[in-house]
Amino acid sequence: MKTILKSAIAVAALVAPLASFSTVASAGKAPSYTYVAGCDQTKLYKPVNMGINCKNANEFLSKMVWTSWKSTSATGTGRLVSKTTSSGTYTLSGVVTKNGVKYFTTISGPGLSKPAALPKP
Questions:
Q1: pTM
Q2: Residue 6 lies in a domain
């Protein structure tokens, strides 16, 4: 009987820290991301292809590989397809919050004479 009681106490001692750990882990805050607004009002996170001008479907980024995606800016390499095609590094910046969701508002890089506005959320 003493052996069973000792075993039960040992198991309880092992399980108690795990139970409190899982409670603490689940109480953490969910990660917050910054998105790009799609022309169809979708939230895009690290898109491979994305429209940058909703009035002209022939102006978009393609084959993007994002090297950095932070809450205030994102940088990646790919192609800008527009009147001409340019390749290089593109940066998203200028963050606005709408309905509690953060979105990038501008893009800069090769083929753009100045930072351009991204689709509005």
A1: 0.73
A2: no
